[in-house]
Amino acid sequence: MGRTGSPRAGSSTPSRQQQQAYAAAAQQQGQQGQQGQQVQQQQQQQDLPTQPNAHGSPTRVYLNQNVTPHLLEGMKKLALEEPEKPLKWLSNFLAERSREYERD
Predict the structure, then answer these.
(1) How far apart are CA 47 and CA 41, in angstroms?
(2) Where is the composition biased (Low complexity) (predicted)?
(3) What is the mean pLDDT of residues 41-52?
(4) Which of the listed residues 5, 9, 54, 75 has the most CB atoms within 10 Å of its CB?
C-alpha cells in the first residue's frame, strides 16, 4: 500500500474495506432476491382466479360450479408446498375436500 492507505497501482488484491463492501452488497442482493421471490409468489397467488366462470356448455358450467373451486384451491396449496409426490398429494387433498363438502 502507498502512503495514502490505498492499494498500490497494479495491485489486484482488494483492501479489507473493499472486501467488507463487497460482502455487504452480496448480502443485500441475497435479501432482495428472497424478497423478490416472495413478492412474485404473492402476485402469482393473486392472479389465480378465485371463482370459476359460469358460462359455456352445461358440462363446463357443472364442472365450474362443482369441481373447479376445489381444484384451484388444491393447486394453490400444491404450488406452495411442492410435495415430492404432487399427484398423490392433490388426490389426498381432493378426497379430504370431498369428505368435507359431500357429507349428505
Answers:
(1) 10
(2) 17-46
(3) 65
(4) 75
Are 77 and 97 in contact, with CB atoms under 8 Å apart? no
Share of the chain above pLDDT 90, in %: 36
Q: Which three cell numbers stand for residue 63?
A: 364442472
What cell numbers appear for 76 in the block? 394453490
Q: Which grid cell is 38?
A: 416472495
| pTM for this prediction | 0.47
Which residues have a Cβ under 8 Å from the Cβ of 86 and sit 6 or more positions away?
78
Q: Which has the closest alpha carbon to 48: 30, 27, 71, 28?
A: 71
Between 50 and 7, the more confident residue is 50
Query: For residues 71 and 94, is the Cβ–Cβ distance under 8 A?
Result: yes
